Amino acid sequence: MHLKYESTLREPLVDGVKDYHQVTEDIISPIEAKPGKLWYVGFFISLALLGFGAFSVFWQIYFGVGVWNLNKTIGWGWDITNFVWWVGIGHAGTLISAILLLFRQGWRTGVNRAAEAMTIFAVMCAGQFPIIHMGRVWMAFFILPYPNTRGPVWVNFNSPLLWDVFAISTYFTVSLLFWYSGLLPDFATIRDRAKTKLRKLLYGVASFGWTGSTKHWQRHEALSLVLAGLSTPLVLSVHTIVSFDFATSVIPGWHTTIFPPYFVAGAIFSGFAMVNTLLIITRKILNLEEYITVGHMEAMNKVIVLTGSVVGCAYLTELFMAWYGANPYEFDTFFKYRAAGPLGWSYWIMMTCNVISPQIFWFRKMRRSVAVTFFMSIIVNIGMWFERFVIICTSLYRDYLPSSWSYYRPSWPEVGFYMGTFGLFFTCYFLFAKYFPVIAVAEIKSILKTSGENFKEKMEVYEEQPDEKFAHDVAHAH
Amino acid sequence: MEQKKYWKGLEELHNTDAHQEIVKNEFSEELPFESEGLLNAKTPRRDFLKYLGFTTAAATIAASCETPIKKAIPYVNKPEEITPGVANYYASSYTIDGEYLPLLVKTREGRPIKIEGNTSSTITQGATTAKAQGAVLSLYDTARLRFPTIGGNETTWAELDKQVTAALGGAPVVVLSSTLLSPTTKKVIGEFLAKYPGSRHVVYDAVSYAGILGANEASYGKRVIPSYHFENAKTVVSLGADFLGTWLNPAEYAKQFSATRKINAKNPEMSKHFAFESIMSLTGANADERYTHKPSEAGAVALALLAAVGGSVTAPTLDPKVAEGIKKAAASLKANAGKALVVSGSNDVNVQIIVNAINNAIGANGTTIDLANPSNYRQGNDADMAKLVSDMNAGAIGTLIVYGANPAYDYVDAAKFTEGLKKVKTTISFNDRVDETTELCKFAAPDHHFLESWNDAEARTGYFSFVQPTISPLFKTRAAQDSFLTWTGNTTPWVDYLKAAWVAKLGGIEAWDKALQDGIVEPATAPAMGGASFSGNVADAAGKINSAKKGGKLELVLYEKVAIGNGRLANNPWLQEMPDPITRATWDNYACISNTLAKTFSTQLGDDYEIHTEKKVLKIKANGKEVVLPLLIVPGIHPEVIAIAVGYGRSEKTGKAAGGIGKNAYIFSSFNGTTVDYFAPEATVEATGANYPVALTQTHNSYEGRPIIKETTLEEFKQNPKEVNKDREELLKFGKDFRKDATLYGNFSYPGIKWGMSIDLNTCFGCGACTIACQAENNVSVVGKEEVAKAHEMHWIRIDRYFSGDENNPEVVFQPMLCQHCDNAPCENVCPVGATNHSSEGINQMAYNRCIGTRYCANNCPYKVRRLNWRDWNGADSFENNLYDVADMNDNLTRMVLNPDVVVRSRGVMEKCSFCVQRLQDAKLTAKKAGRPMKDGEAKTACQQACAADAIVFGNVNDKESAIYKIRNEEQTERMYYVLEETHTLPSINYLAKIRNKDAAPKAEKESAHKEEAHHA
């Protein structure tokens, strides 16, 4: 057996003196205990938000989309902005669980469970918008290509909205499977530790009869790889397809070929920021600072500064193309009504939050500051929300015919609906944090002996040895 | 060599039974997935699926909603002339307030649903206005009086007649009516009045034209309104007369004027139109040269013009720009002597005398002004009315019968009238609703709506048209003439009276039947036009004008809106919601001010002004009265003028649509001793600090130089006809045929019919008749002010109005915008459910049932013509109590106006112009039944038919004989363009570039001159 050696120069991924049992204790015991006060406060606030959102949606469905402030010129506003924003957030989870798995990035183990949960919940929130925004939501099933007796009437495969239906539903299904299959061993652990009958029953059902046999592990690993393989293209394709909603249109500001990579980069950008927001809260409340370390946050901040800069490049490219393309309508959209004009403020919020402020992450000190990271994670998501708002609204409000130019402010049911999705998201997240292991116990254990602090300390002995001895010991160590 | 055998364990060495078992079954290890038992469970998988399926199906059936039962009752005996599904047309006439429009009324199953112009009339030639188009809705107005009342309580006609006849007599009886065009009605009134000595008939117009009448009396000895012939004029000078929008009979004049504005590309010629005005009127917006002055200077402008055309008066000093304009106008008038016309909107006798003098000097009499065959459009006499009011106050009037007039609302001194009314013993109103005057009258004897009535009309001496019922009276109303006849003691019903009079006149019952069928009786050959010798006292008039009160710092002027007019049809939701052609505002009146003046109230045109519906509220004082109204910035209004539309501020009882909307501006009118002045030379304005939302359908005024509008000047067009469409040459880079060559995709060839439309920007005056015609034809919903303010209005055709150039005197262009029926439609390929798609005839169609309302199509429409049903406007969804109806449009009565050929759309569904597909199908079927190909002109869209200026041409572009084919391929190739053609949307609607007859050096010349200069330098 080879020694699982990792250079001591690399920061440990699990701090403190940990053995396998201690890991289980640290992560599983909060599930077995009563939640704290903070949990209840947060959960009920979330439920209240969810309730208000449900009321807003009821109001809109009952009285019509007219209760929103969308109009003849601006057919999409907060609804689709929120849709794209939530979908984008979801992308980080998939990227962490799939692509980082394939790239064998050990640090993902600390954050992947929560990030994947975030993906699921974010996609659940996102999916509300394209459905509820319909004028006749009770006819929403028309978008499904199902056999029917009406001719048959078929869906329009040319429409990017239809592609969205497939993209989002596939994405949700695959993400859910991935997340759940990862949960099986941990559920089994909870089941095995359970002291109450109900817990034993429920987690027993949830763990699908996991026994921890080698066969289970082997199949589990294989499934993880297959799902990672399936998810990897989804990271790129889902937001590409979302971007097609705009890119395939004729509206200046939407009709742009740069959208797919730009959207994907933006999605990862906002998703990582959201992961940071959630984990900083989670580690604090559940005392998991030893598992979700500053090193984890730093890694994510690096991704943020990278993707933020990619997005910045995209913004500048758009501006360049608007000038270079010599299309007067596009030029006006970008230079007169997006970067300036009555909605110009939204553009500059976007620029500040997405491009300028993340540059502070070039400094290590900033990357490793919990406070700065938390603050920036919020700023980035504000910026990314405004990016979608800018794309949608500043393109629509002043397009080809000036006679139809208009302005847009949301009405209370639009804001309420958005708040409602926050309610949904956090309700789900609080339940998740209470009942599910927020860190993948099994996966942490798999890296514990290489990257755990107390194990790494033992490596120093080897590193002090001469090279030949080191090589020999590493090869033959037990 | 012996193969050595290594053993892996003692089991193998000893080959135990257990080991043998393992070897036999290599993968024997039981996977910890206890599968047995699953199939033996109480509910095996298959049963489970069965149960699931059954319960789902059962739940679905159980949950299915019960559909409410609606009963349709068939005819027991089918009326001979009614075939369900087939429309009948009846000739009728719109004669409200003296406006004259012979009509054809379309009825379906006995209900009038649409009004068209009667093309047989040589006066209007089928022209209509928005008001006439909307009149059909007024028939079904829920606020109409449904029965006679005494003191506000319902009564019977017998009881009312009894009490009225008892009350009549003794003191003089006065019939106070608005202008009546009907000679027979006047005869009936005459007979009635003859019975009561000392009685008289006072004619009163809400918006008076007594100035013209008086001036013509003074100048020609005839108190008449001449017949104007704009079609003969090469130069038209309008001194504040909005003859395309509201002046006298605008549809007639628009028709005439449009004939001089059509461009024959081979020999481009058009009339030249000068406008001198205080506000930005529809007519001024269509002028080639426009100048602004203060309303108090109207006389001075007329005098200056008279001086400039050679009259013996001294020109007063005017603003240099205006003086320059007068010089130009005079030169043009003189150059086109005998083919020129000056009209004035002033209601001042002296100003009109000067105008008569000008017309006399330029040879208009007998050429463009026909005094031999005068018009009867307005007959009101302000002096008579003033005398009546003082008589009433003196208690000298015994009975006042109000017939179609509403002085308690619109009279110059309404308070005095109201006061006087109290002193009249018997007051009777024939008005159709409890309006401001009727409310004060003891007896209400409501007249029929004109679509329920018999009547005749004499628009011009010898030119008659008829009114016949298109539906049985909806309510217990009675024709006013019947009331008069009854009270005269004549037992002949009015219909027999009218018939007898006409049978006698025409010489037989057959001639009468034919007259009703045609709707008109006109002289076989047009009688010769004639002038009259001018005998006006110019010096006296000039003296009075010069001594008139000079204006103060700010002046106030009242005007009529194209849709609302004098306020008579104010309770018409279609008209209330029709955007004003200039301001694009709906559902309100407001103080129109210039940007310059607005700046003094810290607001001005710009983004901030555009994006806020809330406008600053001003307090306007003049003539000792004041109103509080929001301001609206109107480019082109004189900077020292405030303009307010009349017709608003109606009482709540006039109806849900009109009641409480806007403020009454008639209070600012004043009586100058002879006539009523609709301006106040001294006004003050102050900010109130409050804000008030105004619902505009268009907030941005400029077309930003985009090639969506193409315009040029006549001179330029003559010299270089290709210049205006120069940018289309860029498209040739893709190949000869932009349609085919600029795409990677295939091209559909449209065998058979391919519908197309052409809109001439040169003759679209922006009046909005098409908008209302479309609304009536296609059951377009009314949404109300708040929703218009949210840009939720539903109009399928809108008229975009753009300003360009000088903010204080801009050029204006109107562009009707409707679904372009793109052959490569951006809306079609983005709809996820295929609810919008293309027909083989080139129509972009909507399958409402399929639409789920994602709005992607509307977003992707470059023309922004798609309209979502944001709310439940029609009660067409299954949600209870969510109807959004601010104007009683869903009353069972109002719904009778709906066109049964067009479905109403439910909430959440997208809709837009359908090219009136129901009419196209009808035309095709008619041709098919007749076994012949459809002829050009048989299929007409509602907008096309309504247009007084024939700006819209529609037809089959595959038919080489069709007008639309000829316009596109032969006649107007230089001016023809498509909006946003470069996006390759391939619209089915083309536009013809606007040509202005301006005094501007052609671009080509300017450019070469410029080059030369550069060369020399």
Structure characterization notes:
The complex is a heterodimer of chains A (478) and B (1017). Chain A has helices at 20-32, 37-63, 78-102, 108-132, 160-193, 197-206, 214-247, 259-285, 294-324, 328-338, 344-356, 364-367, 370-396, 412-435, 441-451, 453-463, 467-476. By secondary structure, chain A is mainly α. Chain A starts with 19 loop residues before the first helix and ends with a helix. The model of chain A has no long low-confidence stretch (mean pLDDT 89). The interface between A and B is large, with 60 and 68 residues.
Main traits of this protein?
heterodimer, A: 478 residues, mainly alpha, Formate dehydrogenase/DMSO reductase fold, globular, B: 1017 residues, alpha/beta, seven-stranded mixed sheet, 32 helices, disordered C terminus
Distance between the termini of chain A: 6 Å
Rg on CA atoms of chain B, Å:
35 Å
Oligomer: heterodimer
The overall pLDDT of chain A, averaged over residues, is 89
Strand line-up of the largest beta sheet of chain B? 5-4-16-15-14-6-7
Query: What is the global morphology of chain B?
Result: globular
Largest interface: A-B, 60 and 68 residues
Let me know the CATH homologous superfamily of chain A: Formate dehydrogenase/DMSO reductase domain
Derived from helix and strand composition plus strand pairing, the structural class of chain B reads alpha/beta
From the 3D structure, determine the CATH topology of chain A: Formate dehydrogenase/DMSO reductase fold
Show unreliable segments of chain A.
none
Which sheet architecture does the biggest sheet of chain B show? 7 strands, mixed
Strand portion of chain A, in percent?
A: under 5%
In total, the number of domains of chain A comes to 1
**What characteristic shape of chain A results from the CA principal axes?**
globular
Number of strands of chain B: 42
Order of helices and strands of chain A: HHHHHHHHHHHHHHHHH
Describe the main β-sheet of chain A briefly: none
